[in-house]
Amino acid sequence: ISWTGEDNSHPRDEICCFRTIREKMKRFITVMAATLICVAAFAQNDAAIRWSEKVENIGDNLFKVTFTGKIAPGYHTYTLSDPYSATEFRDIEISGGSAEGVPYEVSIPKEEVDEFGEKAKHFYNEIIIGQNIKIEEGPAQFSGYIFANACTGGACKSETYDFDITIDPSAVPAAETAKVEEAAEVPAEGE
Length: 191
Description:
Structural class: alpha+beta
Helix content: 10-25%
Number of helices: 1
Shape: elongated
Radius of gyration: 31 Å
């Protein structure tokens, strides 16, 4: 509408305006979708502890499952027995076997005074935990998750690692036992 009150617009002007708005909206939605995809991709890779597991046959239907957590630089996590922030195994289920004992630390934590002035034991770089499983018959299934707090500079975040491990005696050979041969006694000189 002009300053004189007359409508000087042309129907084609409205179509062009809508096309421009539609093109801008398409670009905006495309940029937002790309941003959301990038954020989602980075969110999957922000774990401060990356876990892996290994199964060893230690004989007599007993298997050692070793969990290794690689800890990101600048972070630490806690022992299995920490009174405030223990690393824990939760919702453990074992079919076809049973746990022999409780989870145990293979790696040695660093003893230090924490940010609250308390004595604490922390793992930096790596935490290794073992659990022995006795197989009753055939393959066994060992599942659950590890709960751990990863902390840096007084800020902590809870992390979980789900596992579901098949322990198949036929697929994991028993470790070879090293034979220690007794040294033959050598008579001392003059005997």
